[in-house]
Amino acid sequence: MSEDVSGADTPRRNQSRPTPLHAVHVALGASMTDFAGWSMPLRYTSELAEHHAVRNAAGLFDLSHMGELVLTGPGAAAALDHALVGNIGKLAVRRARYTMICDADGGVLDDLIVYRLGAQEYMVVANAANTAVVMAALTERVAGFDTELRDATDDYALVALQGPRAVELLAPLTDADLGSLKYYASAPATVAGHPVLLARTGYTGEDGFELFCSPDDAESLWQALRAAGGPEVPLPAGLACRDSLRLEAGMPLYGNELTAERTPFEAGLGRVVKFDKGDFVGRDALLARAESGPRETLVGLVGRGRRAPRAGYPVVDPATGAALGVVTSGAPSPTLGKPVAMAYVPLDRAEPGTELAVDVRGRQEPVDVVALPFYRREA
Q1: What is the CA radius of gyration of the chain?
Q2: TM spans, by residue (predicted)?
Q3: By the 8 A CB rule, do 29 and 7 touch?
Q4: Which CATH number does the domain 13-64+156-248 belong to among 3.40.50.12780, 3.30.1360.120, 3.40.1190.20, 3.40.50.300?
Q5: Tens-digit pLDDT profile for residues 103-151
Q6: pTM for the predicted model, two decimal places
């Protein structure tokens, strides 16, 4: 999970809330930006260098802007099964699940990760821009269930260590058995002497960990991780490279690929909707869409030239120029060395190998439809 940083180069400092790591970012000379009401590092030196660091070694992210909502009590699982599209009741303790919260019409309000922390305790991690929306929807939906819901965002800072060297760098600092910690699992652990919830999750397409800790411990924990591999590994990484990393990995972004105007089925994520669990908010609308099939679908596009498609650019028929769809995310791919994009197009234009074009500022740029993701790490 990540969020849009396009057009965010101009800070609005008077409206920005600092994360517990704000002083660290300033000391590192980060370019700061207002994002979803938080003052966040956009980049430290070069987003290209930060991108390559995550792909080839490791990067260190401050994700303390994400929202953490905690449900406790004997009815917590049933409440989440009613509120969300996934089957949370079958989630094992210490495991996590990617899911969504949809409105009654099936449109996506946010994509989420739910961690089951104990027999009767769950943590829902929401995108920063949608935390209030998710909290309001959950408050309404869990009423009547035997559960307590609270916004625990202020209780946590969140640091992410991502990249192929993440295990190597983290292992000497923790008492956790990293070899037994599976993907989309979590465990209470100690890292650099600080208690954390250690999760093997991430949004970069690489192996890595997300560390939920006390805000008071965040700076010390960051500095310990920062020193783990020497002066350049892990490299502090900002929102800009986080966006290019998730794009290469074909991961959807709320506000771009996911919106209240589209269901999970258009986004190719119908697998997260679990009809067999019983009733839930949006079930009827989603079942109707599943049975009828979506009218458009999300595809990958790879450009043949050098000009990158960007969000909002029209996808057109290269022969006639007729509009077919719209780019939801696009950028030059540092890993592939080519422009890449995700876009919604009609089903009959979604087959890999289909030749399309994107209107880039009045000029047609040829693109080829490809299967997502653009990049997949070696196992």
Answers
A1: 21
A2: none
A3: no
A4: 3.30.1360.120
A5: 999 999 999 999 999 999 999 999 999 999 999 999 999 999 999 999 9
A6: 0.95
